[in-house]
Structure to design on (380 residues):
């Protein structure tokens, strides 16, 4: 029996969702003696099938609570959580356990292997619990998964006979037992040396290439940068990833401030966003689609000077130079565009708090000013 890394949606699916994971306006608060404690506030997070996403944040920022929402270990106080087309927030406890066993593989920081049974028996447990495969198929699949993580020779050993890195590999194999579409790992390399951590990360990359959706929580920012996307959580709120990409020198609190102040605006393909010569009052970050910087040419059609994709910005040149737009901007004909706007008043507050951000944006503005003049054939 060859291992399959692709599966159909469970028959408990109640609706279709464009994303493999879709958190919509999720709040989570706990009642305490001194009032409600908010662990998550208005979280929106979408992760597509086959993505490798890292979640980073300081201790107490809400990372574990966020994972608990996705896995159904805890329920949102408000909002919706959809995973693989199923409304996790709608499931009762009995359905939740069966659904989780088939749809999610969870890798814990401290392995959580049962010490008194063999490695292969640990891997077979989830199959037995969810009544997946026949007894013969379970053992065969367990061996194939151990071969996948390069531990086939250790199948009949107890977990305590293995190194920490080997136990983590067994934990990953166990998470794959029922061929779930999503694997979630909480600090999977936190207790491993750098060489072993690298091999575990390589295994995750291999799984993504085979179609799995992987989410890891990590404190290792260098490792997080190697995933497809990074979701930064601060004080229970998700920092917009495009804000973070546009202004990476802001600290977590400042990024959260910028995210809160950013306004979403949507434009149909080919729509003009800004007109040259009009008053400038906002800084723009492209979050979806592509925009075109266009320059007029006398008695000729306009020329597209440059295209800007997600994470790119415009409006910073005007912030530092005269507050009047130096070019026209339109949504590309290829599709609709979403941009985030931060007013110049809010941008001023941010750069006052971060000299590194001011310097970075100013250098960008000067560079683009020179390019603008060059496009027009004007010497600076």
């Amino acid at each position: 029996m060859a291992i399959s890394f692709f599966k159909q949606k469970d028959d408990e699916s109640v609706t279709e969702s464009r994303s493999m994971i879709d958190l919509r306006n999720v709040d989570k608060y706990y009642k305490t003696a001194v009032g409600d404690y908010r662990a998550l506030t208005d979280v929106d997070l979408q992760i597509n099938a086959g993505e490798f996403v890292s979640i980073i944040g300081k201790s107490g920022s809400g990372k574990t609570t966020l994972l608990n929402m996705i896995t159904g270990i805890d329920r949102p106080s408000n909002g919706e959580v959809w995973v693989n087309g199923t409304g996790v927030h709608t499931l009762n406890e009995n359905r939740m356990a069966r659904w989780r066993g088939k749809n999610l593989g969870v890798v814990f920081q401290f392995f959580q292997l049962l010490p008194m049974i063999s490695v292969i028996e640990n891997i077979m447990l989830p199959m037995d619990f969810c009544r997946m495969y026949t007894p013969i198929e379970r053992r065969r699949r367990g061996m194939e998964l151990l071969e996948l993580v390069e531990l086939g020779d250790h199948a009949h050993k107890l977990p305590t006979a293995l190194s920490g890195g080997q136990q983590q590999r067994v934990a990953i194999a166990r998470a794959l037992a029922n061929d779930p579409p999503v694997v979630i790992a909480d600090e999977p390399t936190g207790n491993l040396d750098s060489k072993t951590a690298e091999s575990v990360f390589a295994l995750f990359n291999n799984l993504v290439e085979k179609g799995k959706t992987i989410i890891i929580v990590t404190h290792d920012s260098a490792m997080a940068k190697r995933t497809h996307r990074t979701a930064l959580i601060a004080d229970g709120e998700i920092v917009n990833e495009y804000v973070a990409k546009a202004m990476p020198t802001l600290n977590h609190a400042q990024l959260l401030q910028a995210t809160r102040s950013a306004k979403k605006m949507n434009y149909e393909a080919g729509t003009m966003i800004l007109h040259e010569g009009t008053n400038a009052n906002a800084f723009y970050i492209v979050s979806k689609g592509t925009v075109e910087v266009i320059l007029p040419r006398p008695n000729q059609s306009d020329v597209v000077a440059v295209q800007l994709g997600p994470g790119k910005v415009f409006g910073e040149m005007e912030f530092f130079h005269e507050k009047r737009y130096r070019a026209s901007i339109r949504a590309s004909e290829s599709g609709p565009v979403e941009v985030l706007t931060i007013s110049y008043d809010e941008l001023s507050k941010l750069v006052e708090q971060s000299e590194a951000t001011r310097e970075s944006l100013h250098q960008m503005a000067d560079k683009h000013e020179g390019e603008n003049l060059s496009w027009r054939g004007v010497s600076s």
Notes: Residues 1-17 have pLDDT under 50 and may be disordered.
